[in-house]
Design a protein that fits this description.
With about 325 residues, the chain is an alpha+beta fold. The chain is built from 13 helices and ten strands. The chain has three domains: about 5-135, Arc Repressor Mutant, subunit A (Orthogonal Bundle), CATH 1.10.10.10; about 150-245, Roll (SH3 type barrels), CATH 2.30.30; about 245-334. The strands form three sheets. Strands 6-5-4-3-7 form a five-stranded antiparallel sheet, covered by helices on one side. A three-stranded antiparallel sheet has the order 9-8-10. The protein has a two-stranded antiparallel ribbon with strand order 1-2. Strand 3 and strand 4 form a beta hairpin.
Length: about 325
């Protein structure tokens, strides 16, 4: 399926849902009213009604001045079978920022309006109250929104299962050309990631930060998804392995009571591990622990944030770096 045909199918599905909900909430509606509100021709409306009937939805027509289409008495759409908790969840699950990134902001708004129209009055009131009282803002504090000029192109290639040519900025700032087989998009803490395979590379799917994609173009070549690939399961495994890939060294440190309170400054994962391995305080209130580190250089800068409330025990190279920084500060401020 091409990107254009997928869009056309989505537009038609949205229109069919609109017709169904209008018939459910209003009763009898004329073909002309449907055509005017949905901005399509009468011929399209008749074709859509035939499609609804073909899907097993009992729409019938009445003739005459007050005639029109209506649902068979007693028929209820599945949407109106929502429980109160399910209706609440629909409006709590909305991610307007993510939808806007993908070019679906107006679609999300239209969908919520349709859902509100389809809900019984008591659930409609609950849904409106949820929307007024809860707002989800996924990105962290003090973060500027990332520029994502290629997100729509990447998303279309994911959907249509076509290979993608990208110019990608690696972590060392080198920009390289890659041909990828895009398997899925993940939004994590306000950041978009692409999970993709490299053709003929047997190491399995890899992860790319979409904001580092300088340019992207879908190729005419389709590809086969790996058998049994599950995006959610893959991402869960990727997260589990992330800390092991990131932290390949450790440091043994001693902390004052104040230092233990400030340990969060070295990062959430390292601090969590440090608190878990913490010894009982000695007579002076100092405790010993081991924290994971990315490298001696990273640990040096991280531990300096704790000032005089930390002492590095090992490794010796890290201890000397921190001591050298302390001596330099004494000379500067002495």
């Amino acid at each position: 399926m091409s990107g254009l045909s997928a869009i056309l199918d989505a537009v038609r599905a949205s229109r069919l849902l609109s017709i169904l909900l209008m018939l459910h909430t209003r009763g009898r509606v004329s073909a002309q009213q449907l055509a005017d509100e949905l901005e399509v021709s009468l011929r399209t409306i008749y074709r859509d009604v035939d499609a609804l009937n073909g899907a097993g939805i009992p729409v019938y027509a009445t003739r005459g001045r007050d005639g029109g289409f209506q649902l068979l008495d007693g028929y209820r759409t599945r949407l109106t079978g929502l429980t109160a908790d399910e209706a609440d969840a629909l409006f709590l699950a909305g991610l307007p920022g993510a939808a806007a990134d993908l070019g679906l902001g107006s679609t999300l708004a239209a969908t919520q309006l349709k859902l509100l129209a389809a809900l019984p009055p008591e659930l409609r009131e609950r849904a409106a109250r949820i929307r007024d009282r809860f707002h989800l803002d996924a990105p962290g504090w003090l973060r500027e929104a990332e520029e994502l000029p290629s997100l729509a192109t990447v998303a279309d290639a994911v959907w249509t299962q076509h290979r993608l040519h990208v110019r990608y900025e690696r972590s060392n700032r080198a920009v390289v050309d890659r041909v990828l087989e895009p398997l899925g998009l993940v939004l994590k803490a306000g950041t978009w990631y692409l999970v993709a395979s490299v053709p003929a590379d047997h190491r399995g799917p890899r992860t790319y930060r979409v904001s580092r994609v300088h340019a992207a173009a879908a190729l005419d070549e389709s590809f086969e998804r790996p058998t049994g690939f599950d995006l959610e399961a893959h991402w869960a495994g990727y997260q589990r392995d992330y800390e092991q890939r990131l932290f390949h060294d450790t440091a043994t440190i001693r902390l004052s009571p104040a230092g233990r309170q400030l340990l969060f400054l070295i990062g959430a994962a390292a601090a969590r591990a440090g608190h878990a391995a913490m010894s009982e305080p000695d007579a002076d209130g100092w405790a010993t622990t081991t924290v994971p580190t990315e490298s001696v250089k990273h640990a040096h800068h991280a531990l300096l944030q704790l000032g005089a409330d930390v002492e590095v025990v090992a490794p010796a190279e890290l201890r000397e770096l921190v001591a050298a920084s302390a001596r330099a500060m004494v000379e500067r401020y002495g």
